[in-house]
Amino acid sequence: MNHEDNAIANEPATLHRALCEVDSWLVLSGDLHPRRDVAERQVAAYRQLGITHIIDCRQEWDDEYLLAELAPEIRYWNLGTHDDGGPQADAWFDAGVAAYHRAMEQEDAKILVHCHMGVNRGPSMALRLMLEHDPEVLPEDCVIEIRRARPIARILYAEDAARHALGPAIEENLEGSRKVARMLKVLAEDTIDMGDVIHAIRRSEVAP
């Protein structure tokens, strides 16, 4: 792990709820803070950045009523799913893609995608939306862009996202299989110890 990697691993609490712009239309982050005053400041930052839509990937919680109170102009979808390391269902990505197309009906759309920590579920959905936004983009380049913007993103469900985008015939599509293989190679080159990052975020959440 190099010096830059250490800096990332040592600042997980800062990166946890940071608003990380992947593209002009796409932002990644963690969830709203459980303290009301902190959450209010986060929502003010959403407004300042121009967030128009939120896709929340948490199965364990949602902010529908809080956001309806604090920022009724922001469209919110709770597309909760598990984070147990198993495959993500096509239906989850279907729902995310549908939300993306609804959001893009708005000319100035800017979508915030998040889960709890912004490590696995949110970045994986963001990857799928990037492949929807530009069908010519390579999955490996999306991974690079996501990690450039959000260095703590592990994107555990990246393969599920890429396979969903490339379609059911991927096993018969040599070029599609190569795209997935190249993406997995890029993912494997990550030098961040994600266990350390996740544990550090959890410690920061229980700190007095």
Overall description:
It is a single chain. 52% of the residues lie in helices and 12% in strands. By secondary structure, the chain is of the alpha/beta class. The chain has a five-stranded mixed sheet with strand order 1-2-5-3-4, sandwiched between helices. The protein is globular, with a radius of gyration of 17 Å. The protein has a single domain (14-206), classed as Protein-Tyrosine Phosphatase, Chain A. It has helices at residues 3-9, 12-16, 36-49, 64-70, 90-103, 121-133, 139-149, 158-166, 174-188, 194-206; strands at 20-23, 26-29, 53-58, 75-81, 111-114.
Which labels suit this protein?
single chain; 208 residues; alpha/beta; Protein-Tyrosine Phosphatase, Chain A; disordered N terminus
Give a brief outline of the structure.
By secondary structure, the protein is an alpha/beta fold. It has helices at 3-9, 12-16, 36-49, 64-70, 90-103, 121-133, 139-149, 158-166, 174-188, 194-206; strands at 20-23, 26-29, 53-58, 75-81, 111-114. Strand 1 and strand 2 (26-29) form a beta hairpin.
